[in-house]
Amino acid sequence: MAKDLSLRFLLPGLILFGLLAAQAQAQPRQSLVPGGIAIISLEQENTTNYRFRDKPVLIAKIDGVPSALVGLPLNLRPGEYFIEARDSSQVRKKFFSIRDKKYSTQHITITDERKVNPYASDMERILAEKARQQVARNHYSPAAVDVDFITPVSGVSTGSFGRRRVFNGQQRRPHSGMDIAADTGTPVLSPSAGRVVELGDFFFSGNLVYIDHGQGLISMFAHLSEIDVKLGDRVEKGQIVGKVGATGRVTGPHLHWSLGLNGTWIDPALFLPD
């Protein structure tokens, strides 16, 4: 009996270890374009209070060097920008330049016309869900962040970040994440440790989960067939948070993964192995 109990408690840990061991990890890569990230080296003694457009930026070590990681909005114009830190004695600024990038256009046919042109009776729900998602995307906690991410699910990339999307001939917002096609029921792993700050069944996104990794770095997983965590749960890197599905506005089973940084969506591929 004692042996059975020890195996029962040991097995989940072994499964998690096996999943992590099979996954390549990577530190984020800089991409100085709209939708990318700026990685700015900082002095060892001055790493606090940096902000971009009045929002705190993530501070982590990249190749052993303290660095600010800055999410660059898709609507950012090319030019020179800066982060700054203010204290009682001085203002410190770090400058960086953004170049332009042209994203492609994707035409998508949705068989459920209601997911393209919702009924008037759907709008109250849609607006309430939009407000909840806005709060989740801007969630901030001062926790230290493990930026060595793993891929949340193995599959085929079918939708690139930043693409301008046309649903049934109607132009919509650019794609806010990456799509990974996989079979329904495929486990979705948390790419880094964090805490669940939002979840539920949403009109467009289907079953979704938001995970706060710390310092404004937020993962959002959408279109899940199952959700395997609860609101407020602490999750570890490689822990299963849900299963791939086809809920919400979709053309087939896949994982939609959005990654937010200082309140803006960025290209998740920059946090994955090349």
Could you list some keywords that capture this structure?
mainly beta
Profile the largest sheet. Answer: 8 strands, antiparallel
CATH homologous superfamily designation of one domain: Glucose Permease (Domain IIA)
Number of helical runs?
2
- The run of helices and strands is HEEEEEEEEHEEEEEEEEEEEEE
CATH arch. level architecture of one domain:
Distorted Sandwich
How would you characterize the overall build of this protein?
The chain has helices at 2-21, 123-137, and strands at residues 37-41, 50-52, 55-56, 58-62, 65-71, 79-86, 91-98, 105-108, 156-159, 164-167, 170-172, 178-181, 187-189, 194-202, 206-214, 217-224, 226-227, 234-235, 240-243, 254-261, 264-266. With 274 residues, it is mainly beta. The protein has a domain at 105-271: Glucose Permease (Domain IIA) (Distorted Sandwich), CATH 2.70.70.10. The strands form five sheets. Strands 9, 12, 14, 15, 16, 18, 20 and 21 form an eight-stranded antiparallel β-sheet that branches. The chain has a four-stranded antiparallel β-sheet with strand order 3-2-6-7, with no helix packed on it. Mean pLDDT is 87; it is low at 1-22.
